[in-house]
Fold this sequence. Notes:
The complex is a heterodimer of chains A (about 350) and B (about 250). Chain A has about 350 residues and is mainly α. Helix content of chain A is about 75%, strand content about 0%. The longest helix of chain A is centred in the C-terminal third of the chain and has 36 residues, at about 300-335. Chain A is globular, with a radius of gyration of 21 Å. Mean pLDDT of chain A is about 90; it is low at about 325-338. Chain B contains nine helices and ten strands. A six-stranded mixed sheet of chain B has the order 6-7-8-3-9-10, with helices on both faces. A four-stranded antiparallel sheet of chain B has the order 2-1-4-5, covered by helices on one side. In chain B, α5 (about 120-135) crosses α6 (about 150-165) and α6 runs parallel beside α7. The radius of gyration of chain B is 19 Å and the shape is globular. The two termini of chain B are about 30 Å apart. At the A-B interface, α8, α9, α10 and α14 of A face α2 of B.
Amino acid sequence: MSNLVNRAKSIAGNQQALLLLVLIAMIAFFTSRNSIFFSNAVFGNIISDWAPIVLIAIGETFVIISGGIDLSVGSTVAISGVVAAFSMRSLTEHGHGSTQTLIVGFFVSVATGILVGAINAFLITKTNVVPFIATLVTMGAGSGLAIVFTGGGPIGGGPDAAIQLSVPKVGPFSYPGLAIVALVIVLGFFLHKARFGRYIYAIGSNEFAARAAGINTKAYLAKIYILSGALAGMAGYYYYLRLGCGAPTSGLGGELQAIAAVVIGGAALSGGEGRISGTVLGALILTTVTSGLIIINVAANWKQVVVAILIAAAVLLQEARAKGSSSKLLSNLFKKKN
Amino acid sequence: MTQPLYEVRDVSKSYGSVIALSGVSLKIHAGEVIGLVGDNGAGKSTLVKVLSGAHQPSEGTVILEGTERKWNSPHDALVAGVETLYQDSGLAPHLSVSANVFLGRERYVKGLLGKLGFLAQKEMDRVAHENLDRVGIAVPQSNRSVSQLSGGQRQAVAIGRAVSWASKVIILDEPTNHLGARQAGEVLSVIKAAKERGLGVIFISHTLPHVLQVTDRIVVLRLGKIVADAPTSTFDAESLLGTITGLID
């Protein structure tokens, strides 16, 4: 029994170490099957895939810790990329320089994301629609509008410099990729070391207790859905840079990848639990699997099966952790009585 | 006679056509423990909500230290020094003991980071431990997550938090529910310690022996009205039960 307790304990304390181990094992496995995998080119590709996923997954982490869910992030990526593409095409046609155009495009993309987030926030905190339904509504509306606006095709005609920005410059990282890493670190500090994060955990853990402690829970919930929207807007812009155009299919299924990354990272959908580092590693594992399977010539659809297994493993681990803490509690009680 | 610490005067509360409280007046003095008892539906919860600021009375006034107050939220009352421990509302289990003790009252690091809301966690861990210790609650480590504590320890932390922050009045709604005899005993000694510190304690409970053991005065509610308000020494278990159920008038 004490052996089991100890094992559960070490797992509970080291979710991140475990994820890192899984990641290293995957890299070793893919490299052993095809040595090309272990190269700057492939890592660059993995990081390029990872960057937009981690952006929306971080937003999803905040939302899931608060006990909610945001299904709209994938659609928000699409709609914000498309709206930014239209604005950048128009600016380019009017003879504006590429730097200026790219900066405006960034803000248009983020503003579009914020708008979607604000609609989610309004539905959830003002009309009391549950997050699942509220974000299902904006998810449908967002992806529908993205297709209606574009007629289904990509919107190009923006500055040519865009695509240059997405080329890896520092190891496997492009400059936007580095900016995303920096942003993730800053958000990590706000989640784990500051009042903002503390209150989000409190809301996800026990909303009544949070309100009784004087926390304006609705204001905090509104902020995190807006944050999630803003991050999805950034991801939409990132896809624009990568593709050199705004495609209504960018970010398709992104919400499920984000949720998968968060769950693999150790967060609980019931709220109150989760860490930025877990989500970062979860997203990295997802994108490593995707690239790895392609490189070792496994049919791309196997990826979904592998991801499903990873999610199942993460959930089972969570179960074990919950049991671990309760048996630890039991052993403590016995110790005291004797 | 000294001025009461906390008082409600002629308070009535109705929800639509349902009258939950009618013409209730209640006084509590500093260093006094009053027991609030009554059957289910007698109006105890409603009175607690009025006292704690969760609900506003339909009629009547709430007076703290001689000044009429109007609570718009429990937070208003809390800031004024009236702390409430709600039945089963308790704590955020995923947060640490100290995070729970300081929830809504966090301390921040100095300088710019503090302005951005960065928390002085070590300081809060230490002070939380000191505060709980001061009110007579022993909790192993204040950086442990509440979900790792036993039911009794959780309740102790919840009470410790409320008592350590309360500067005037502490309202305890069924604090000994679901507790074993030893833990209930600890809760009762925390109540006594709070009384010694000069707080006014309002103790709501169904467990009449606890009420008889720890209170100075007992207020009995029945069907939204106060039917008895007398020193605890004038009751015994039988007469108290009789007053609650209406067998004795």
